[in-house]
Design goal:
Radius of gyration: 19 Å
CATH superfamily: Uncharacterised protein PF12988, DUF3872
CATH topology: Immunoglobulin-like
Distance between the termini: 67 Å
Oligomer: single chain
Structural class: mainly beta
Number of helices: 1
Helix content: 10-25%
Order of helices and strands: HEEEEEEEEEE
CATH architecture: Sandwich
Largest sheet: 6 strands, mixed
Shape: elongated
Number of domains: 1
Length: 142
């Protein structure tokens, strides 16, 4: 019985260690996203993943943003690291913080909402952890 309990505790400890909390190593910014538009105007969704404390967004592991909206026509529904406005300089060891802009046109007056599901890897010298975030962008259309 003692061995079984000890084994369960070891497995639980390994499971916790395998998925470290790295949320303090980055922030997702959305400054510059459209929040209010006139009917017929085009807006934009801005997403930037800002690494902190010596971390970086992996440029080797997949980065994917899936956008959707019932209320607006999106210029793109899928975005990858290749779509980042900030590019890594050839031969550089610096990891730029990826930034994306996706245009949209609301379907009608009223409220529009755009959803974005982010999947990326945040890394340090010791770890690389998969992150998923869901963002919502409400827009008022006059």
């Amino acid at each position: 019985m003692k061995h079984t309990l000890m084994l369960v505790m070891v497995v639980a400890a390994v499971a916790l260690a395998a998925d470290p909390d790295v949320t303090s190593l980055y922030e997702v910014r959305t400054e510059g996203s459209s929040t209010a538009l006139k009917a017929g105007d085009k807006g934009k969704v801005v997403i930037e993943i800002k690494a902190k404390n010596g971390a970086h967004v992996s440029d080797e592991a997949p980065l994917r943003i899936e956008l959707s909206s019932k209320d607006a026509k999106l210029d793109k529904e899928k975005v990858t690291l290749a779509d980042s406005l900030v590019k890594k300089v050839e031969g550089s060891k610096e990891y730029p913080d990826p930034k994306f802009e996706v245009g949209f046109t609301p379907a009608a007056q009223g409220k529009a909402n755009i959803e974005a599901k982010l999947t990326f890897f945040i890394c340090t010298d010791k770890i690389c952890a998969r992150q998923t975030k869901t963002l919502s962008f409400p827009v008022t259309v006059n």
